[in-house]
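Researcher: For the annotation table, I need structure tokens for Signal recognition particle receptor FtsY. Please keep the output clean. Sequence:
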Amino acid sequence: MFDGLKKKLDRFRKDVEDTAEEKAEAAAAEADDDAVADAETPADDSGAAEPAAVESDSEETAASTSDTPEPASEPSDEAHSEATPVETDDSEDTATDATDAASESADGADAAEDADGPESLASDAAKAALAEQEADDSSSAGRLKRAAAFATGKVVIEEEDLEDPLWELEMALLQSDVEMQVAEEILDTIRDKLVGETRKQVQSTGQLVEEALHDALYEVISVGQFDFDKRIAEADKPVTLIFTGINGVGKTTTIAKLARYFEKQGLSTVLANGDTYRAGANEQIREHADALDKKLIAHEQGGDPAAVIYDAVEYAEAHDIDVVLGDTAGRLHTSNDLMAQLEKIDRVVGPDLTIFVDEAVAGQDAVERSRKFNEAAAIDGAILTKADADSNGGAAISIAYVTGKPILFLGVGQGYDHLERFDPEAMVERLLGEGE
């Protein structure tokens, strides 16, 4: 059951897992390569070499300046003796300026305002080398950070990782007869739950994706769910259930299956044939009633459906019957006359539940019909027949969401016992292959 959709969901899970893991491993490998390259490359002296050269040149300049005005050991006259100290003072000033310039260049500071060309070029080169080194360090740190994130379980899925897999999933859902609005809701939920998600050490990306898929599917499938058995048990007796839908989807057989279902719960039932226009309808439902040993209330062909079901309710009250199961004529949601009959049954009988029946294999058609029937007759829930033959599961996923009313049962065969209570959690586990 639903094997086709199950395979498509599993493919999406693997696509995201492979994309995220390959990207993370590539980042880790790149970081490792950079770390090895950094370890093998000699230290870059560009930042210090040129300032050192400037300092050396400055020292030579200072030394040369200091040596130039070498005073005479024996001054010959007074003028020469007076000039010598002045020339010496200038030399000391020049040496001091050159030394300061060299020191500032070595520290990476701007050259003095009146520094010469070579010193300025050396200082600019030093700053450029330092900036380049900082950029390399930053890039390397970023790669190391990504690698560490992969190793420690931090962010593993980014939005671009989901772009292609989500598109593939959307196509898969639509091909599986999931209604478009429902498919979009599923995709939005998955995106919200995965983008920027973190991973614990004990988790894999596949587990994260599976959890997101589980939550997204459960949110749309479980809309409107209520405890069917509890509602029947607590309702005033007799409880009246009316079944509607188009011809040939299995309404009458479903009524018979529910009669067996209630019998197992210790509840008595009476069947009523409100399908008064179809030739052979009385005979068909009577066969089921006889096989199950149940009472059938029926009128002649062409009678009033509301009157038939009203009589069945009266019979149930008189004979302490717990549940009335009323069939109605198969109708298209475009038939105004037949829809008017449903409205009359609702006014005359006031059923406790109106249940829409359709085939799971009808896919998008079943979804659209459920929407129209709900608008016309305010259904309370749905039963999908032939679910065992449905590989897509689109109707089962979509009907509750588009109507706001739950799927109550799945028909999974022709036998009277082939009726399963619809459990959203079990449905999601079946689609995701959990527990297998």
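Researcher: And a one-line annotation?
Model: The first helix runs from residue 3 to 40.
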